[in-house]
Amino acid sequence: MEELKKVIVPIGPYHPLLEEPEYFQLFCDGEEVVDVEWIAGYNHRGIEKLAESKHWDQVTFLVERICGICSTSHPFAYCNAVEDLAQIEIPERAKYIRSIIGELERLHSHLLWIGLAGHFLGYNTVFMWAWKYREGILDMFEMITGNRNHYAMFRIGGVRRNIEDEDIPILKKTLSEVEGKIKMLTEAVIDDPVLSARLKGVGILNKEDIKNYGAVGPIARASGVDIDVRKDDPYAAYNLVDWKMITTNNGDVFDKAVVRLLECFESIKIINQSLDRIKGTKGEIWKEVREIPKGEGIGRHEAPRGEVFHYIRSDGRASSPIRHKIRAPSYVNIPTFKASCIGETISDVCIILAGVDPCYCCTERIAVYDKEKKKKVYSFEDLVKKSIEKTEKIKKEIGKESKLWKKLF
Amino acid sequence: MIEKLREKLGEKIKEINISNKKRIYITIDSKDLKDVIKTIFYEMGARYQIVTGIENFNNFELLYHFSFDKEDGIIVSVKTFIEKERPEIESLIDIIPGISYIEREIWELLGINFIGHTNLKHFLLREDWQEGLYPLRKGVKKDGRT
User: Fold this and answer.
1) A315 — contact with chain B (CB < 8 Å)?
2) pTM for this structure?
3) What is the rounded distance in angstroms from the CA atom of residue A58 to the CA atom of residue A301?
């Protein structure tokens, strides 16, 4: 009889509030959620299997495609794994550049999450602020790597591109502008009574839950578990610069937001110090790696969402790994729903599910540039005008010509 | 760390392989798995990371990775081998609740049965996936054919 009382509320697999296809079944008793089931695989692309047929160098690009938002995290962890296996020490300049890319990524990813969290709560001002200020970070990426999203900066033994001295002043200027904006955003979020009322005491995870599910990253640090791969097992330049780990103790969604916001300032500290260190110095940015010996290696990186884990095995003969195991942070963070959602109301579950920051990629933009005249062909207004024209055109076409449209209406 | 492992686990360790000072691989017998994991996870306070399943030429291999975050970030990987003829091992779901999903994944991708798992059904693959076709095995090609 007990079973009959439960109502299943499906969220997904395709749902406007989930950025990627995943499926949650909420078992509800009235408004209260009594159990949660997670079904995945809608986005499974068999990358582990594919990696077994790619060259060592190609795998760097392959794993970059795992995630659009934290696209550097996987190559970072993969290169760490191969360097662990082959015992390669990378040049110091490459270490700093790696840290800069890793931290810029953390900044843009955290801003993205804050924006989405605001949007889920119906607080769209936060959404628009955060995403607007995030643009500055993406511009920095474009300046350094030539791309806003898939940077292709990593290679086994170092990085592919240098950061030139002449770019550093403008990078630092952009960064300090963004820092001011994040400060404003942080104050606004922490002081806001509506956000406090909505987020405090919601979806609490205690230390025991963190241990049981192996949760990592800001989720763990918001519950007072001070784990961070950058501190615990330093790699790249994280032990060469001065920064501190952010932890809070309440474990609710509000604390997760606070941890992420405060971490942004630590990231800015790391980037600024790293830029200062490489300014005016010369040095190799990568080291030639000729062959990968037999053996096994583990590499990890503290991605914006937590520890990324890569295990690789080489037989010393093949030109590709014979096994490549990848564990993204969401794989261990998502199952914490079992601890955080049960007993909450349906309306709170939305933000708790979003609280672990499951991944997302949406980058759409257009800029038409005339190389000879060195100016933009279309201004923002022109693009808006073009977009409106296109919509009108489509409307007209569908309205008059399309049989399907006529059938429907 | 190596002394500590030897002291706590004693005879159960069949082989220790230190690839560098932060990565330790210990090989154990599959019947000792539960005891060893209990010791590492509860007594020694390691953090569970993930399980890797590998198909070797004549056996299956499982690696349980644990991180000692506050002890220099050492990763201890517990290795155990399973016969190809009888691909089954005890489930650790009652020790580490979070291990449930990866056990389901290894079950469907490699075809290793976890005894005692209460919810062993498809997680990544379709519900109507062809029975006995395990995509991560070496004999299966990228397009799913054997």
Assistant:
1) no
2) 0.86
3) 19
